[in-house]
Amino acid sequence: MSSVAVSLNSVSKVYKRSHLGRTTLTPGVADIRFDVAEGEVFGLLGLNGSGKTTTLKLLLGLLFPTSGDARVFGHPAGSREAKKSLGYLPEIPYFYRYLTGREVLSFYGGLSGLAPATLRQRIDHVLAEVRMTAHAHRPMREYSKGMLQRIGLAQAMLHDPRLLVFDEPVTGLDPLGLREMREIIHKLNVGGKTVLFSSHSISEVEKLCHRVGILVKGRLERIVERSEWTTGGKSLEDIFVGTVDPEGRRS
User: Where are the domains of the chain?
Assistant: First the structure.
């Protein structure tokens, strides 16, 4: 039986802002509950502002929940043990533009505490995995959007984490970039990695995920099994639209 890689138990986040003596409370997500099994590819779908990025940041320990509990392989989200187990690719990765791809990876590998000999081996390995070996000598300012995404992915993979978390990993990619990113994520999963990612691209989620969580206004409205869109008579797009807009008000 697979172990649990990710667990969110009744996680809520309320943003508190104070200005001129007045406090404003804004709900981010409310009562989020789901688990991701080790070895699974789990996708988060939702409209803009539905809470996808907030959910991921709570899991990463970049935000702290107002209530509830988030864990990574049994360790509290944000703890040293949890951070060692995961790699993260943000929606828009930022790197120093004057560094080469190899220098970027060397910098982040040093921050991760990898020994020099191990780091050299891992850099060569991840560059090959994301198909960037031939471009690793070029400065980041010369990279396309797709190349930046692949270096960002290499950075997330560098310390060989068990869990990979991606926020909108295919945003802005051209058709070739989309295909390459899909192939890399699939290969990582086949190699035993757990993947959790958010996306607006339903077609990519449909191709990659075992299960999908649909967020609506900060709440997890539904978890969809792969069999529901492969043999259930409805596409994932149909299921998504029916969940976020059940009365067809946006049609």
Answer: 1-85+195-251
Give 76's Cβ-side CA count (13 Å radius).
8
* pLDDT tens for each residue of 44-77: 999 999 999 999 999 999 999 999 999 999 999 9
| Superfamily of segment(s) 1-85+195-251 | P-loop containing nucleotide triphosphate hydrolases (3.40.50.300)
Per-residue pLDDT tens for 8-36? 999 999 998 888 888 888 889 999 999 99
204 exposure class (CB count in 10 Å sphere: 0-12, 13-18, 19+): buried
Nearest CA among 83, 102, 105 for reference residue 158: 105
Per DSSP, the residues of the chain read -PPEEEEEEEEEEEEEEEETTEEEEEEEEEEEEEEEETT-EEEEEE-TTSSHHHHHHHHHTSS--SEEEEEETTEETTSHHHHHTEEEE-SS----TTSBHHHHHHHHHHHTT--HHHHHHHHHHHHHHTT-GGGTTSBGGG--HHHHHHHHHHHHHTT--SEEEEESTTTT--HHHHHHHHHHHHHHHHTT-EEEEE-S-HHHHHHH-SEEEEEETTEEEEEEEHHHHHTSSS-HHHHHHHHH-TT-TT-
pTM: 0.91
